[in-house]
Amino acid sequence: MRADVFLVEGGHAATRSQAQRLIAAGVQWRLAVTLPWQKVAKNGDDIPAGAEVQLLDAAEAKFISRGGLKLEGALAAAGLAVSGLRCLDVGQSTGGFTDCLLRAGAAQVIGVDVGHDQLHERLRDDPRVVCVEGVNARALTPEGLREACDEALSEHIEEAEDNDTQPQSPYAWMRNGGMVDDAYDDSDDAKEHDIEAFKAERAAKARARAEGTVPTRRRRRAGREDVDITPAFDLVTGDLSFISLTLVLPALVPLLKDGGHLLMLVKPQFELQPGQVGKGGIVRDAALYAQVEQRIRDCCAALPLRELRWFDSPIEGGDGNREFFIHARREA
């Protein structure tokens, strides 16, 4: 079996991309304790079924994705303790930041992402996590987030048909060989037009069900009835791509409690003009980092955000770009 696939299926890595980073850091295998270790040189190398695997550097596998390592270092650098906090993770993706927050003791993480079906299954099933998909962080509002959370936690069920109040056929008495006499009272029997209207109603509902347009009502899924979706957070984190933070921060501030903290990853390639970014999306002119920093600082100053610190990400971006974190607090 391919080495990267073996690591995922064996539970050593959450994704193939994570497995490939583990292989780059060093992976070896052996079939028995009496046999020598065999080093995995590339992702496509074969590892036999039943082989014992050893990771020479397991740091990459600590969290669902590499983003968790970035946030772990940033929380330490900012001196932020998240135990017991309600957090909002913007740009949740596969869940690296969410995983880090939960491992650090966060009480709840509500995650928002513009994409769909990216969050790792382990996090999606965690009762402390609410995954909101198909939402652009730039358009977030407190009420919009509350509604999106309620939708994410609910299922839509069709209203049960009322079979107890079906119209009674005027000739129902004949079904069992009944006899009619002068004492028979047909005043409660449905008229022919009632029967036809009922049949038409049932037929219309059958068509709507087939077309997926039948009316439904929303109901919280079992076990999720009491999940808190109050759109006010102790900490907002984020790892966003293809959009400037200056367009997102104004939408995030109303979601922070007074005194709440903001810790966002800054990717310079998305804060600069296309002509300032080199081939492959790499920022090669180090002087441009100061422009990015000033731009983000100015944005915070225009909002009720007090910048506390600006610092390098503890881990370089996967594409080789230098990245930063901005730590700020919402002013009362």
List key phrases describing it.
332 residues, alpha/beta, seven-stranded mixed beta sheet, 9 helices, 12 strands, extended
Question: Could you outline the blueprint of secondary structure elements for this entry?
Answer:
Blueprint: H1 3-9, H2 16-25, E1 27-30, E2 38-39, E3 52-55, H3 67-78, E4 86-90, H4 96-103, E5 108-113, H5 121-124, E6 129-133, H6 142-152, E7 154-158, H7 192-211, E8 216-220, E9 233-238, H8 245-252, E10 256-266, H9 288-301, E11 305-312, E12 324-330
Helix pairs in contact: 1-2, 3-4, 8-9
Structure, described:
It is built from nine helices and twelve strands. The chain starts with a helix and ends with a strand. The protein has helices at 3-9, 16-25, 67-78, 96-103, 121-124, 142-152, 192-211, 245-252, 288-301, and strands spanning 27-30, 38-39, 52-55, 86-90, 108-113, 129-133, 154-158, 216-220, 233-238, 256-266, 305-312, 324-330. The chain is an alpha/beta fold and 332 residues long. The longest helix is centred in the middle third of the chain and has 20 residues, at 192-211. Helix 5 (121-124) links the parallel strand 5 and strand 6. Strands 6-5-4-9-10-12-11 form a seven-stranded mixed sheet, with helices on both faces. A three-stranded antiparallel sheet has the order 2-1-3. Strands 7-8 form a two-stranded antiparallel ribbon.
